[in-house]
Amino acid sequence: MTFSIESSASSASASESSESRGAPLAPAIAVRDLDFAYPGGGDVLKGVGLSIQRGERVGLVGPSGAGKSTLLMHLNGLLPSDLPTEAEARVFIEGIPLCRRTVFQIRRCVGFLFQDPDDQLICPTVGEDVAYGPLNLGLSQQDVVRRVRRSLEQVELAGYEYRSTLQLSLGERKRAALAGVLACEPAILALDEPFSSLDPRARRTLTRILERCGCTMVIATHELDFVVQLCPRVIVLDRGQVVADGPTRTVLGDSALMEQHGLEVPLTLRLAAHE
Ligand code: ADP
């Protein structure tokens, strides 16, 4: 297999720098008093604060328009478009302030899966697409081929290297996009509505794949039953504010809280309550 994308030199990951300084392990993600408004719009995030430890899998839920995607995009510097200076930073990844100086280092550490895989898949074939990130990290051809193979196996698309990205089902496109993210071996995954528009089998496949990933994970989703299955902890966002943060079954099982914030107790918890 050959891939022909220009590669550039790699830089240290956030994780490597933090540990090499010998400092106690900082949280994977810390957000402190984060405000945000789109140009010409009202406030979308208002004083958001949260801390996520390494290896945690956290669901980010809330009604449409709550600010989930907007918050997620702050975790690897997709927003704000004018990145803060170090002194202004409000997002810290493994203790490193996310700012103009560190954004590329942080993007190596935080992999982002877009809701629509077509926003992510940019190459004609699956293999080239998955290779794109590793090539840009400056890895050798041999390492790139190894990572492509391993990532495709991880997402249950082994042997798809030469398939056209245009000739895949939506579930396969999502998994191919995820393989591209995983091929860069991020320590943290930020997933925006990974289950949306998938049929039940494709959702189960994706759940199985995510369960096997060892990374720290933040999953923004409306699919609360999958949060129950995948995430021991959930954060509820409403109107740009964190309104609840705690054990998934406790938070999502609180019918008054769910109703207050435009959500519903997930079916699995309702059924469990009647057993
Ligand atoms: P959620 O993911 O919880 O549905 P979003 O983060 O997508 O919420 O959106 C939060 C708010 O920001 C909504 O009111 C939405 O209309 C607005 N918004 C989202 N993207 C943009 C944008 N690119 N420009 C202006 N407003 C936006």
Summarize the structure.
35% of the residues lie in helices and 20% in strands. It has 275 residues and is an alpha/beta fold. The strands form 2 sheets. It has a 6-stranded mixed β-sheet, with helices on both faces.
Could you characterize what this model shows?
The chain has 275 residues and is an alpha/beta fold. Helix content is 35%, strand content 20%. The model is unreliable at 1-13 (pLDDT under 50). It has helices spanning 14-20, 68-74, 103-109, 126-136, 141-154, 170-182, 200-212, 224-230, 248-252, 255-260, 267-273, and strands spanning 29-37, 43-52, 57-61, 91-93, 96-97, 110-113, 188-192, 216-220, 233-238, 241-247. Strand 1 and strand 2 (43-52) form a beta hairpin. The protein is built from eleven helices and ten strands. It has one domain: Rossmann fold, CATH 3.40.50.300. The strands form two sheets. A six-stranded mixed beta sheet has the order 6-7-8-3-9-10, with helices on both faces. A four-stranded antiparallel beta sheet has the order 2-1-4-5. The structure holds adenosine-5'-diphosphate. Adenosine-5'-diphosphate (ADP) is lined by residues 38, 41, 44, 62, 64-70. Residues 38, 41, 44, 62, 64-70 line the site of adenosine-5'-diphosphate.
